[in-house]
């Protein structure tokens, strides 16, 4: 439980720092680079695996977060997994903060 709480707090701090840069257009390259490196690190630390089936891809993407409840899967269509990321991203900064999409 303690490890999970630390992971969640670290995740929130990274979002706050990343959000600051994401709201400033002139930091776009910094934000993208920082988030890409963090995504790569997360995939490595959590032993991320490539998946083929959409449902499996969604579950693996969800597993990369500190808790599945942070990004609940809302719907799986023919070619897309839709998850709710609003709880983790505020103020329109999600686009710059989630390079996990398409991995």
Outline the structure in words:
This protein has 103 residues and is mainly α. It has one domain. The chain is 51% helix and 7% strand. It is built from four helices and two strands; from the N terminus they run αααββα. The protein has a two-stranded antiparallel ribbon with strand order 1-2. A hairpin with a 4-residue loop joins β1 and β2 (81-83). α1 (2-22) packs antiparallel against α2. The protein is globular. The termini are far apart. The mean pLDDT is 78.
Brief write-up:
With about 100 residues, the protein is mainly alpha-helical. The chain has helices spanning about 1-20, 30-45, 55-65, 95, and strands at about 75, 80-85.
Could you give the topology of this structure?
Layout: H1 2-22, H2 28-45, H3 54-63, E1 73-76, E2 81-83, H4 94-97
Antiparallel strand pairs: 1-2
Helix pairs in contact: 1-2
Mean pLDDT metric: 78
Shape label: globular
Overall SS class: mainly alpha
Radius of gyration: 14 Å
Low-confidence stretches: none
Please tag this protein with its features.
single chain; 103 residues; mainly alpha; two-stranded antiparallel ribbon; 4 helices; 2 strands
